[in-house]
Amino acid sequence: MSKNNKNYRNKWKKESNFSAQHLLISKRLIHDMITLARIRPTDTVLDIGAGTGALTYPLAEKAAHVLAIETDSAFVDRLFSKMKDRSNIRVKQSDFLEVSLPRSPFTVVANIPYSITTPIMGKLLDHPGVPLQRAVLLVEKGAAKRFTAVPIIDSRILSWRMQYEIRLVRTVSPHHFAPPPQVDSAILFIQRREDPLVLTQDHPKFTSLAAYGLRDPRLPLFAALSDVFTPPQIAKLVRELRVNREYPIGRLNEEQWGTVFHTMLQHVPRHCWPQWGKSPKGRSRKEDNH
Ligand SMILES: C[S@@+](CC[C@H](N)C(=O)[O-])C[C@H]1O[C@@H](n2cnc3c(N)ncnc32)[C@H](O)[C@@H]1O
């Protein structure tokens, strides 16, 4: 390491006490993220892990309100000292995972702490009643790939994607940050679906079906769902899905899962629906052949 780099690292270490504080230093990237978020003058925007405000201040120029959440007290002091003339910024020194989310529609634009990416995603996306409209997040590239993977073999991610479109916009190299992280990052774009594939009130039923159906994503569809649907129902279902009964369940897309779910709601007696953490009771072969 060169002497300059060493000095820089030591200085940085003194300033922060958390090794994942990779601050954004690319004006271009900040501009691109905010443009992607299509902020309107009436919007409320959350900046999760605001750091020294690289995103917070430009966001405040576009939005009605910006809520900057940050745990590090040194960063919080800097955020306060720089916000004098900005009355639409609220700084909250808090763990994001402990914060109450707004009850009215909001957007998130953030370079989040990578160490808690999945808990952050879960807090934003697990409950469709949370009025998140859109999010533009910088995350580790590996995580972005996992959230946008095709086929979808993770039932929690599938449940998110029934409510939200999730897209990996582009890879971001480490030199956009100081200090640079050891991994590539990516811009993740999350947009609430105008027509969700599952209604908010049905979401818990869907998450139970998804967890059960994807318990082994390699299973052929007829075997994976044999406790839920009767053989004639499976035969009709696979025709609608335009696949054959041997098709691995882990290869269904979001729209196909929507069809499976709505067929279950319509034609399968309630006592045969999977319940969270339990196997379905099983279909008796004598049951009606809808
Ligand atoms: C990757 S840095 C981003 C900083 C800033 N947004 C930027 O782009 O320059 C992540 C920030 O999240 C903060 N942080 C870490 N854990 C947090 C948590 N649980 N809640 C809120 N902020 C957290 C860190 O202190 C750090 O400032």
UniProtKB/TrEMBL annotation:
<dbReference type="InterPro" id="IPR023165">
    <property type="entry name" value="rRNA_Ade_diMease-like_C"/>
</dbReference>
<feature type="binding site">
    <location>
        <position position="49"/>
    </location>
    <ligand>
        <name>S-adenosyl-L-methionine</name>
    </ligand>
</feature>
<dbReference type="InterPro" id="IPR020598">
    <property type="entry name" value="rRNA_Ade_methylase_Trfase_N"/>
</dbReference>
<keyword id="KW-0808">Transferase</keyword>
<dbReference type="Pfam" id="PF00398">
    <property type="entry name" value="RrnaAD"/>
</dbReference>
<feature type="binding site">
    <location>
        <position position="95"/>
    </location>
    <ligand>
        <name>S-adenosyl-L-methionine</name>
    </ligand>
</feature>
<protein>
    <recommendedName>
        <fullName>rRNA adenine N-6-methyltransferase</fullName>
    </recommendedName>
</protein>
<keyword id="KW-0694">RNA-binding</keyword>
<feature type="binding site">
    <location>
        <position position="70"/>
    </location>
    <ligand>
        <name>S-adenosyl-L-methionine</name>
    </ligand>
</feature>
<keyword id="KW-0949">S-adenosyl-L-methionine</keyword>
<dbReference type="InterPro" id="IPR001737">
    <property type="entry name" value="KsgA/Erm"/>
</dbReference>
<feature type="binding site">
    <location>
        <position position="24"/>
    </location>
    <ligand>
        <name>S-adenosyl-L-methionine</name>
    </ligand>
</feature>
<dbReference type="InterPro" id="IPR029063">
    <property type="entry name" value="SAM-dependent_MTases_sf"/>
</dbReference>
<feature type="binding site">
    <location>
        <position position="111"/>
    </location>
    <ligand>
        <name>S-adenosyl-L-methionine</name>
    </ligand>
</feature>
<feature type="domain" description="Ribosomal RNA adenine methylase transferase N-terminal">
    <location>
        <begin position="29"/>
        <end position="194"/>
    </location>
</feature>
<feature type="binding site">
    <location>
        <position position="22"/>
    </location>
    <ligand>
        <name>S-adenosyl-L-methionine</name>
    </ligand>
</feature>
<comment type="similarity">
    <text>Belongs to the class I-like SAM-binding methyltransferase superfamily. rRNA adenine N(6)-methyltransferase family.</text>
</comment>
<dbReference type="InterPro" id="IPR020596">
    <property type="entry name" value="rRNA_Ade_Mease_Trfase_CS"/>
</dbReference>
<keyword id="KW-0489">Methyltransferase</keyword>
